[in-house]
Amino acid sequence: MPVEKVAIVGAGIAGLVTALAFARQGIASDVFEQAPELTEVGAGLQVSPNASRLLAELGLLSQFEAVWTEPERIALVSGTSLRSLAYVPAGPSARKRWGAPYGVLHRATLQRVLRDAVEANPLCTLHLDTPVREEPHAALSRLTGQAYPLVVGADGVWSNIRTAIDGSPRPSFSGHVCWRFTIPDRIVPSWLKPDQVTAFLGPSTHLVAYPLREIGGFNMVAIASGVSPGRTWHAEANESQKSRLYGEFRRWDRRIVDLLQRADQPTFWPLFEVGTGRWQNGRDTVLVGDAAHAITPFAAQGASMAIEDAFTLARCVSEGKNLSQALIAYETNRQERVAKVRSRGAFNRFAYHARGPVRLGRDLVLSLRPPEALAADLDWLYGYKGS
């Protein structure tokens, strides 16, 4: 029997794209969000071609193109000298090589466009201020009086829905925190290039910078070791915490340290990971996005993996005559893909945070790699069409 309507718990990027992906297959959805309104905290994000290709299939790409920036390159730069090490061509090259653009924008912009699309779609219904706790099917039955053949847990790294699946993965603190600074245009130095995403690589930490049109300046994100402040996406830093952060950059080029100290009030959040385990119960419950596989942002693929999940799940459910088999097919497909992305992130973490002789060797190897060779290394990731 075909699935006619699903329940989606969580109205972040994963939940909203899942609703639109199901609607694209002719399947209706009710989206339940515990927050009374959708307010997105956090930072900017990078939308790589594997995700922008799918946003184009939803008919939304032109709305993002109107506000985002398409960097000409993704540059790797030494944090200790500001010397350019290597770069991956983006901009027109990304569209030509991978058939879709590479853009940067504020997370709130992405969520706003997705929410507008959900609210405009007759197959999607968004329910705010509606938490779903305890056993999800029973809770939803009490809330709506309906029985849903499928509940999708899109409720993030601290998912409630995940606890309803035996053998599901569990979250754990990665030992890293993510710091966000914003740099207004009036103080942006000449060495911070407006036409590229720049990853500054340094001992034990790295810093990513790119322009955001929505804030009139640069978004800067530093990933460093730290102590978790708990379940939060927006912790204000006290003087002791800021001093500890600046200490992470003590061996960096002084110009970077000076710029960070002049930046607007930094905020930070802990980076939690979700390990391996089951993403579905074989019957009527499944996970997408961070609820299934939260990964640290060393490959800048968190949002992109959620978008891929949504399309794969909707396709498997719409094509499968048996829901149980469809869920298994989705899990098998996506776990293999996410494992490869996770492995790439682990490699990037090692390379980006290298110290001593390993750092010197890294810099030499990168300087010898031509841009097109570095782009070819990403064909499996950015050119993915498996969803």
TrEMBL record:
<keyword id="KW-0503">Monooxygenase</keyword>
<keyword id="KW-0285">Flavoprotein</keyword>
<dbReference type="InterPro" id="IPR036188">
    <property type="entry name" value="FAD/NAD-bd_sf"/>
</dbReference>
<keyword id="KW-0560">Oxidoreductase</keyword>
<dbReference type="Pfam" id="PF01494">
    <property type="entry name" value="FAD_binding_3"/>
</dbReference>
<dbReference type="InterPro" id="IPR002938">
    <property type="entry name" value="FAD-bd"/>
</dbReference>
<dbReference type="InterPro" id="IPR050493">
    <property type="entry name" value="FAD-dep_Monooxygenase_BioMet"/>
</dbReference>
<dbReference type="GO" id="GO:0071949">
    <property type="term" value="F:FAD binding"/>
</dbReference>
<protein>
    <submittedName>
        <fullName>Salicylate hydroxylase</fullName>
    </submittedName>
</protein>
<dbReference type="GO" id="GO:0004497">
    <property type="term" value="F:monooxygenase activity"/>
</dbReference>
<feature type="domain" description="FAD-binding">
    <location>
        <begin position="5"/>
        <end position="341"/>
    </location>
</feature>
<keyword id="KW-0274">FAD</keyword>
